Amino acid sequence: MVRILTSVSRIPRNTLLLDPTAEQALSPADQPVRSITALDCSWDVLDTSSLKGIRRHRALPYLVAANPVNFGRPLRLTSVEACAAALFILGEQAQASTILSQFTWGIRFLELNEEPLSRYAAAGDSTDIIGIQADYL
């Protein structure tokens, strides 16, 4: 289910890139998705010019981390939490559970974010996601 790439140049151009700096929020309207890419790095130091060839950049909406390092902190997700959130929002809840089940704290992420994830998954588009997110901020 996961392929680890060691170079930004190997990222498929037709992937959906989870990008916290994206102008548009991920929503069910982004389906179909062939692949999801999450960069396991600090976005504060990333040279984003190397990512310009990727067509679809999407930001995740407000969610709370369940990982041991950032437990309870909003918007401080691990790459697996980010991928699981994207899968859940895109209607792939079983896959989200599967990838999270590999971590002792993984399913806790879905429990902590049950209400917002369900609402995000039922949204129509990015505008709806922003409205739902506003309820949590």
Q: What do these coordinates show?
A:
The chain has one domain (13-136). It is 33% helix and 7% strand. It has 5 helices and 3 strands. The protein has helices spanning 79-89, 93-100, 106-112, 114-121, 126-136; strands at 16-18, 36-38, 56-58. The longest helix is centred in the middle third of the chain and has 11 residues, at 79-89. The chain is globular, with a radius of gyration of 14 Å. The termini are far apart. The model has no long low-confidence stretch (mean pLDDT 89).
Key phrases:
137 residues, mainly alpha, three-stranded parallel beta sheet, 5 helices, globular
Helix content: 25-40%
Order of helices and strands: EEEHHHHH
Spatial gap, N to C terminus: 33 Å
Strand order of the largest sheet: 2-1-3
β-strand number: 3
Tally of separate helices? 5
Structural class by sheet pairing and helices: mainly alpha
Main β-sheet description: 3 strands, parallel
Number of domains: 1
Q: How much beta, percentage-wise? A: 5-15%
- Overall pLDDT score: 89
* General form: globular
Radius of gyration: 14 Å
* Low-pLDDT sequence parts: none
Q: How would you summarize what this structure contains?
A:
With 137 residues, the chain is mainly α.
Topology:
Layout: E1 16-18, E2 36-38, E3 56-58, H1 79-89, H2 93-100, H3 106-112, H4 114-121, H5 126-136
Parallel strand pairs: 1-2, 1-3
